[in-house]
Design goal:
Number of domains: 1
Shape: elongated
Largest sheet: none
Distance between the termini: 17 Å
Order of helices and strands: HH
């Protein structure tokens, strides 16, 4: 919000959109893991790998 002083509504909507995109990608990743027969126990591992990849992306930017 400090960076987008001219358009705080736009900044808020982009933040909400990124949150929803993360939710959707997490659901897709979980579905792919299960559909490939890796089992339910692998879903948290895939989720943690996605979180690490997201953190790496944030640190790069």
């Amino acid at each position: 919000m400090q960076t987008a002083t001219e358009a705080p509504g736009l900044a808020s909507s982009i933040n909400a959109g990124a949150f929803n995109l993360g939710n959707a990608l997490g659901a897709v990743l979980g579905g792919v893991v299960i559909s490939h027969g890796l089992g339910y126990a692998t879903v948290p591992i895939a989720g943690s790998l996605m979180a690490v990849a997201s953190l790496a992306l944030v640190l790069l930017v």
